[in-house]
Design brief:
With 363 residues, this protein is of the alpha/beta class. It contains 15 helices and 13 strands. InterPro entries: AAA+_ATPase (IPR003593), P-loop_NTPase (IPR027417), PilT/PilU (IPR006321), T2SS/T4SS_dom (IPR001482), T4SS_GSP_E_ATPase (IPR050921).
Length: 363
């Protein structure tokens, strides 16, 4: 009796796309699973064997990353499947076996209004210069928001946009702008080199997929300081954490100067979380938005001179600012998300409960 041939990843990617899932997980000893609306669901496939995942890696891993994967047991890359879509892939080794995670990505950006992004983020995207940061945990939609911001600029401004991504996740076509999308390892060595090169490419807007190290942060701040609009992401949970993270990249003797530079160049921070919709289908975007103005700039330079950043945001309706909990209050009041799900991601659950009761939303 012949041995069962290795499982191919191709039909699994078809299943991911047809179900509207966001991620596909393939690991030995478990059936493949897809993430739909934030929850992992098993596909009707037998538990994967080591030969299955080894075959999947061979199917999708670019030749130039074979040696790296063999040596480091890690590889990040993009994979396109004709008629299905484009995927961001991480291949890794766990307990001696190959594993993969595929993230489905879009061709073309979604409009901000479809994503539920606050309108003030459009204003940030159309700033002529400065630094705008989009933050949140993995899977919170940062890349999708950045793509929408780039698309808005592309639609309304006649400028040169340089993107530096690892990998490219959303493909943009030139509209009013011209866009050069550069993928780390394929088109450039790393973020640092690409940022250095971008300054010689007559850019108006630079989009950095992720600020991962001090040199990238330094180059991004310098580009924002010299009159460019820089859009970038960080894996931070809120505005205060984002400011702390940027400052902490630097040595103690540099930090006060970095605070001053950040206070001058920062235009805003958009922090994101996703929460399940009350209908049970899809997830709603929850945003904290900080717009940098006089008091927030003073708080960045000297945190002891002002109330906590979150309190400045809460009192900043005039500047169209909002905290996570203020946004959750609106979503619960409008029936978009349930009270229970809101509590699971609220920053101050007790305060949110009190506010909902005072407004008559809760009994």
């Amino acid at each position: 009796m012949s041995e069962q041939p290795p499982v191919s990843v191709i039909p699994l990617l078809h299943a991911l796309a047809s179900t509207g899932g966001s991620d596909l997980h393939c690991k030995v000893g478990s059936p493949p699973r897809i993430r739909v609306d934030g929850r992992l669901r098993k596909l009707q496939v037998a538990p994967l064997r080591a030969d299955d995942t080894r075959n999947m890696v061979a199917q999708v891993l670019p030749e130039d990353l074979v040696a790296q994967f063999r040596d480091t047991h890690e590889a990040d890359f993009a994979f396109s499947l004709s008629g299905v879509g484009r995927f961001r892939v991480n291949a890794y080794v766990a307990r001696g076996a190959d594993c993969l995670v595929f993230r489905r990505v879009a061709v073309g950006a979604q409009p901000m209004e479809e994503l539920g992004i606050p309108t003030v983020v459009s204003d940030l995207a159309l700033e002529p210069r400065g630094l705008v940061l989009v933050t949140g945990p993995t899977g919170s939609g940062k890349t999708t928001t950045l793509a929408s911001m780039v698309d808005l600029i592309n639609t309304y401004r006649e400028v040169n946009i340089i993107t530096i991504e690892d990998p490219i996740e959303v493909l943009h076509a030139d509209k009013k702008s011209i866009i050069s999308q550069r993928e780390v390892r394929s088109d450039t060595l790393d973020f640092q080199n690409a940022l250095r090169g971008a300054m010689r490419q007559d850019p108006d807007v630079i989009m950095v997929g992720e600020m991962r190290d001090i040199e990238t942060v330094r180059a991004a701040l310098s580009a924002a300081e010299t009159g460019h609009l820089v859009l970038a992401t960080l894996h931070t949970v809120d505005a205060q954490d984002t400011i702390n993270r940027v400052v902490d990249f630097f040595t103690p003797h540099e930090q006060q100067q970095v605070r001053s530079t950040l206070a001058q160049t920062l235009r805003g921070i958009v922090s994101q979380r996703l929460v399940r919709r009350s209908t049970g289908t899809g997830r709603a975007l929850v945003c904290e938005v900080m717009i940098n103005h006089g008091r927030t700039a003073e708080a960045i330079v000297d945190p002891s001179s002002q109330p906590p950043i979150v309190d400045l945001i809460a009192d900043g309706a005039y500047y169209k600012m909002q905290t996570f909990d203020q946004h959750l209050f609106l979503l619960v009041s409008d029936g978009v998300v349930t009270y229970e799900d809101a509590m699971a991601i609220a920053s101050r659950p007790q305060d949110l409960t009190v506010n909902l009761r005072e407004a008559g939303v809760l009994a």
